[in-house]
User: Fold these one by one.
Assistant:
Number 1:
Amino acid sequence: THTKARIREIDGTRISAQLQQGNVVVVAGFQGVDEHGNITTLGRGGSDTTAVALAAALNADECQIYTDVKGVYTTDPRVVEDAKLLDSITFEEMLELASLGAKVLQIRAVEFAGKYKVPLRVLSSFEEGEGTLISLEGESKMEDPTIAGIAFQRDEAKLTVAGVPDIPGIAYQVIGPVSAAGIEVDVIVQNAAADGNNDITFTVKRSDSERAKKILDDLSPSLKAESVSLDKKIGKVSVVGVGMKSHAGIASKMFKALADENINIQIITTSEIKISIVIDEKYLELAVRALHSAFDLGDPDYERKSIS
């Protein structure tokens, strides 16, 4: 569509010619032209994506994105005071962090940079500094920590459809109509009981939760569900790092840190470089701080910087 256009190609001939003449080229981001000459806009994240696309088309050494923060931190400094500014991070890690709530970069721009192998650097518009370099996994340092960062999301809600028959296709019958309504489903857990029934639990954005529950309430008789419940007071915390691929014990360390704080885990989901948990929202910040400490992600120079 005109407001959510995709980039098909970039003709960098004129830009290259100006650069070769020593000129500084200023290009308007967020917009393009379709095959009929109509102006289109690129939608959410379009400006960052424009910059990455131009860097790819021009074979630039690096694409620099200037923003309102110094770079990518191990977690939100507003929650953990000694959060560390990362020198580097992989595309894979940045994609996970961006999709899990880190708002430094739009997912679309990171995806584009990873696809075309364009090194991305996030820097501050207001302060001097090297920022954070986002690049391929093989280019990161061998000593890089196992965990790159911790992301969290407050705007989640949990729905449980309890007591549905444990038969083929039941998960689709529950999730399908919710997805068909344009509601994005995140974490999904299915528990089969010995009596032949299933409980299916999944999370959605809190803003979509009432609509999702209405769909499930209407479906409940045909699903033969015992109940449909909604919990809006949950949050999701995720630890992310490519080092998980080659290091054992990450999950146990994570769970111990939460157990030590008496935080109950409601749902666990994993991928190759990520472990996400759903917990009671009131423990969200406590969980982030506990995990940040457990994985030694803090900036060792934080106290010295504070004093100076």
Note: The radius of gyration is 23 Å.
Number 2:
Amino acid sequence: MGQLLDLWEYIQSVVGKGSLNYQGDILSIAFHFLLAVIVMFIGRWLARKIRIVLRHALVQAELSPSLINLFVTVVYYSIILLVVVFALAVAGVPIDSIIFIISVILIVLAIALQDSLGNLAAAVIFLLFQPFKVGDMVEAAGVFGTVREIQMFRTLFLSWENTAVSVPNMAILNGNITNYSQEGVVRLDMKFTVSYSDNLRQAKQLLEGIITSHDHVLADPAPIVGVDELGDNGVSFVFRPFVKAEDMWQTRYDLTEQVKLAFDEAGITIPFPQRDVHLSRSDA
């Protein structure tokens, strides 16, 4: 018993004199410890109840699932932190000592987890300013696919190869973000080249007929077909239909196939790169 009392006096000298007003009665120590445990249990129960109620309220407010998860998680652990502080205070630890210890812990965690905190900050930016949201078709950090979930530290994509790709949020934030779904309509930039020997007007009329007759090509904004370049190998046309974002890949495939078939039927040649080589002969 004497060793326990000596240990307690040492703890008191570290956290502050008179913190528990200890006067030799071990029951006082047990009582304060029991109160702290009760506070922890009640606080944890209360934090869980608040988390459930808050999640329900945010769902009713029709916020995005990712924003709901982030907000609920932050609130829950903030309450847990306050409960721990209150429990330590009930146990008799001075508030100044509690603040100092927590500050040291937070500084150490901030240094050790600076990359994770950066990813968390990026997630907050994504959810507040919404450069993209779940379900959008996005190109970012070298990944092209559909956003499946914005997590606290990473964003999940479903790529066009039907593979799940997880990217750190900071990698997305520090690069360019191309959102194909934000406006709902995208323009396909395609180019077709015909030979100089082919009928230019006929080729243009074929292209205009193909682009205006496709079901997925929008009438407004109007599609564009025009002569773009007189190149080394032929005359190049720009071919720019406007389509809904979800239709852009299938429309590109369809139009490319239709142009090739129409050119073959009309006898229009798609030239390949070629060079004229002139050989000169000199007499020795």
Note: The helical segments are 2-15, 26-60, 65-91, 95-112, 114-129, 169-173, 200-213, 248-266.
